[in-house]
Design a protein that fits this description.
By secondary structure, the protein is mainly α. Helix content is 68%, strand content 1%. A two-stranded antiparallel ribbon has the order 1-2.
Length: 276
């Protein structure tokens, strides 16, 4: 499978959907709507939407069935980046080769743009004509809330590297990164008609891939003095082995789904082995 081609096709599909769903850049209040689109277009690799599409395919559905959750997870992910970049958080000046939203539009507008992106994610789902969308909304709300993404960001900001353990690092990774990745996969599969047993396995797959994905970031960022990093505890090779173990465990969860789950497998390998 051509992973780069799959990602490009997925990105084009979700970007058309998002462009049609969001307020136009010149619709009042125009400055706020421009700020909402600033980081969303052009985006990154659109890995989470691709995983949502692959989740639908894994249960035998067309990838288009997953469009509502693919768009919603990208909106939640982008909101989280806008807020992570704020001076009171990570205080970053550049993202994806562009000035961060608070640099380009001011801090107050960046906060409001992030709020609006998060709200729009649930509007996109609520407007979907799908009988299973209530479960998808619940899954995404859980993944984006205080028990998962927001709580993980809170603990990352206050992370005590002196008292840290590999388990505490992975706890942050699971909540801050893996929960949204799992919601992407499961949401796509749920909209595709997946049954409870397969949804459970796909959730475990997504959580393990998500933690491994973040550990791969730890390896890529080795030497950058990141406090919440598995490299600090296991070294580069040890962290890489841990990511590989998680990947293999994730792949075992979907081994018997056959050819329909091949895109999920390849996306997982790509996400974890980006440095090779």
């Amino acid at each position: 499978m051509d992973v780069q081609g799959y990602l490009a096709e997925s990105a084009a599909r979700v970007e058309r959907f998002l462009d049609e769903s969001l307020p136009a850049v010149d619709e009042p209040p125009a400055r706020l709507h421009a700020a909402m689109r600033h980081l969303l277009f052009p985006g990154g690799k659109r890995l989470r939407p691709a995983l949502a599409f692959a989740g639908a395919e894994a249960v035998g559905a067309a990838p288009e069935r997953a469009l509502p959750i693919a768009g919603a997870v990208e909106l939640v992910h982008t909101y989280s980046l806008v807020h992570d970049d704020l001076p009171c958080m990570d205080d970053d000046d550049e993202r994806r080769g562009l000035p961060t939203v608070h640099v380009a539009f001011g801090e107050a507008t960046a906060v409001l743009a992030g709020d609006a992106l998060l709200t729009e994610a649930f509007a996109v789902l609520a407007l979907a004509d799908e009988s299973r969308v209530a479960g998808v909304i619940g899954d995404l709300a859980e993944a984006a809330g205080s028990r998962e993404l927001v709580g993980g960001q809170h603990d990352d900001l206050s992370f005590d590297s002196q008292a840290a353990t590999p388990e505490s690092v992975e706890s942050v990774h699971r909540r801050k990164s893996a929960a949204l990745i799992a919601a992407s996969v499961v949401g796509g599969a749920r909209l595709g008609g997946g049954d409870a047993e397969r949804l459970g396995r796909l959730r475990r797959f997504g959580l393990q891939v998500g933690v491994a994905f973040q550990i791969a970031d730890d390896v890529l960022d080795a030497g950058d003095d990141e406090p919440c990093s598995l490299v600090s505890h296991l070294g580069v090779e040890g962290a890489r082995r841990r990511a590989e173990d998680l990947l293999e465990s994730a792949l075992a969860e979907i081994e018997d789904l056959g050819e329909p789950a091949e895109a999920l497998r390849e996306l997982a390998r790509f996400a974890v082995r980006r440095d090779r």
